[in-house]
Amino acid sequence: MACGDTVEHGVPLPAEARAWRVIRALAGYARRTATDPRHPSRLCGDADGIPDALRVGDPGNRHWTWRPDQGWVAARPAADPVERDLLDLYLPLCVPVVDGCRVTAHLGQSLDGYIATANGDSCFVTGPDNIRHLHRMRALSDGVLVGTETAARDDPRLTTRLVPGANPVRVILDRQRRLGSHLRVFTDGAAVTLLCCDRAQVTAGHDRQGQARIIGLPTRDGRLDLTALLETLAELGLRRIFVEGGGATVSAFLTAGLLDRLQIAVAPLLIGTGRPGLRIPAPERLADAPRPVVRLFRMGADLLYDLDLRRGSTAALLTPVTRIL
């Protein structure tokens, strides 16, 4: 594709494809450089090392600036509503990370708050638009993480097969090493996989689980020390972590104060009883319950609540519902 073109093989690129190219380009640039997120930085579509994807539509829209108080800002906003909505959703996730990890978690649940039936059936609570969103989140992350129960029950691949983008490193939490080596994350060779367990479970000559590398971690109160986990992942160069499930794992990260963002997709579905989503300490007074800054996006029939947990609590604040196709 030539610089500035919005067509491929003579066919105009759909707004969704244009937006995704820009999102991936900005995420990749932020990942490759040591840009300090506290200071402004201007990017141009024709600068060395910046992909042509930054040249979208009007040439005046090729310049992007990182502003600490606003994030990525284009010289001219996208005119197409689909393109604009995708940029609004994903660009806050494309920030430079120069210290530690930035952690985003996601749960898909029913209207009555369950992520699976009582026997563990969770395929699928949310619809295809949200499933595609999960693949996009993986593509924007250095590592995608799930807990033991999710790995055992769903046998997920945790790849980006539905969208353009590289597979992230797969991080599986299994404190007691109960998972079998037959799971696809340990056998398919699609991406680097790390199995994180109690370091007491790592013995000489047993540092592999199928194709996965074993990472031993300290424990705290009978659980893996999540702070130590993130420190280890950062040392390995994994700074954008996507916690994809399950409910207990997401709840543990939230309770420990280790999440930067939390996404909850609510499907128009009533399960009645089953496995709950979040399980966190309850306040005695409703006034003490956190009210994070939240944005609301429509994904097909589902609604995605995108909670910014680092901007403090506020009165219930909702942006207008937007549409993600």
Describe the structure.
By secondary structure, this protein is an alpha/beta fold. The chain folds into 2 domains: 7-93, no CATH class; 102-324, Dihydrofolate Reductase, subunit A. It contains 7 helices and 20 strands. The protein has helices at 15-32, 81-90, 128-139, 148-154, 184-187, 226-235, 247-255, and strands at residues 7-8, 11-12, 41-43, 64-67, 71-74, 102-110, 114-116, 143-146, 169-173, 193-198, 208-209, 212-217, 219-220, 223-224, 240-245, 261-267, 275-276, 292-299, 302-313, 322-324. Strand 9, helix 5 and strand 10 (193-198) form a beta-alpha-beta unit. Helix 1 runs parallel beside helix 2. The protein is globular. The two termini are 24 Å apart.
Structure classification: alpha/beta
* Fourth CATH level, the homologous superfamily of the largest domain: Dihydrofolate Reductase, subunit A
Report the biggest beta sheet as strand number plus sense, adding barrel if it closes: 11 strands, mixed
Q: What is the CATH domain class of the largest domain?
A: Alpha Beta
How are the strands of the largest sheet arranged?
11-12-10-9-8-15-6-16-19-18-20
CATH topology of the largest domain: Dihydrofolate Reductase, subunit A
The helix fraction, in percent, is 10-25%
Whole-number tally of structural domains: 2
How many DSSP E strands? 20
Name the shape in a single word.
Answer: globular
Give the mean pLDDT. Answer: 84
SSE ordering: EEHEEEHEEHEHEHEEEEEHEHEEEEE
Q: What is the CATH architecture descriptor of the largest domain?
A: 3-Layer(aba) Sandwich
Spatial extent as radius of gyration: 20 Å
